[in-house]
Amino acid sequence: MTHTIADLLQPLAQAREVVVFTGAGLSADSGIPTFRDGATGLWANIDPEEVVSIEGFERDPDKVWAWHESMRSLVADVCPNAGHDEIAELESLLPNARVTVVTQNIDGLHQAAGSTRVLEIHGSALRVRCHDHCGFVEAWEAGQTPHRRCPSCGAPARPDVVWFGEALDEEVFSLAAQATLDADVFFTVGTSAIIQPAASLAMAAKEYGALLIEVNPHETPFSEHADYSARIGASEFFPSLREALENFLEKTDGRDGNDHGR
Ligand code: APR
């Protein structure tokens, strides 16, 4: 078990592939409720089967649209927090690494913070698409009333969010899986790590030799497997990691993580 942030710095400085896997906890400090955190969790107040499932959509599409419209307007009113910002900064800070964000979040905050390689494995509340996958997809701008019918084929339109019981987008998930298998360092941030297949990525990374770093104020099923567990919030952890990294890279002339006796 790795014990301090200092133990993470050389692996990060030398890393070629870094994956940051994120969940709702990362956006909590932006004011978006998580799904399962006690009484404030989104699923404490509504059965997800009613609003994020095909059965719910076929039974009562207006109810499903209403839930997604509430999420869309909530997201329109919030900003990325320091956790999103510092994760985006990793792209320029880590000289040797390609940084891939694999997010379960549908709020678009990683892109808003400047991350350039974001795989949205559960889709996005900022887009609508054809329910029959004819190829129609378009941005859902804040305040805009989205199409309810696909303008291309006439099938129902729906938010571009992966619902319970639906398969993830194959291309997006295979990119996420490949980055995971190639990862030298894998962060799992703000996720309860129970929804599959997303939650399988962290264990796969570990099995393929990645350094596994968990950032979560609470224990999760992965905590025992993590090489380093930061029991603090993401918007607190990532700024301190960046500061430690900047000092380390300056001292070791950055590129290879070895001390040049400065
Ligand atoms: N920083 C980091 N982690 C935090 C913070 C924070 N500031 N605040 C809360 N957390 C942690 C909680 O301890 C919890 O483990 O974030 C996690 C949030 O867990 P969930 O609410 O289950 O959210 P998530 O893991 O993203 O859910 C996965 O489930 O409902 C589906 O599709 C939905 O993508 C979602 C998936």
For the largest beta-sheet, the strand count, sense and barrel status come to: 6 strands, parallel
Bound molecules: adenosine-5-diphosphoribose
Give average pLDDT, whole number.
93
State the assembly state of the protein chains.
single chain
Residues in helix, %: 25-40%
Q: Tell me the number of strands.
A: 9
- Distance N terminus to C terminus? 29 Å
User: So what's the CATH class of the largest domain?
Assistant: Alpha Beta
CATH architecture of the largest domain: 3-Layer(aba) Sandwich
Task: Give the helix/strand class.
Answer: alpha/beta
What is the count of DSSP helices, taking H or I runs of 4+ residues? 11
Number of domains: 2
Low-confidence segments, ≥5 residues, pLDDT <50?
none
CATH superfamily of the largest domain: TPP-binding domain
Shape: elongated
The order of strands across the largest sheet is 3-2-1-7-8-9
Structure commentary:
The protein is α/β, with parallel strands linked by helices. It has 2 domains: about 160 residues, 3-Layer(aba) Sandwich (Rossmann fold); about 80 residues, SIR2/SIRT2 'Small Domain' (2-Layer Sandwich), CATH 3.30.1600.10. The chain is about 40% helix and about 15% strand. The chain contains 11 helices and 9 strands. α1 packs across α11, α7 runs parallel beside α11 and α9 runs parallel beside α10. The longest helix has 18 residues. It starts with 5 loop residues before the first helix and ends in an 11-residue tail after the last helix. The site of adenosine-5-diphosphoribose has 25 residues, from α2. It comes from Candidatus Propionivibrio aalborgensis.
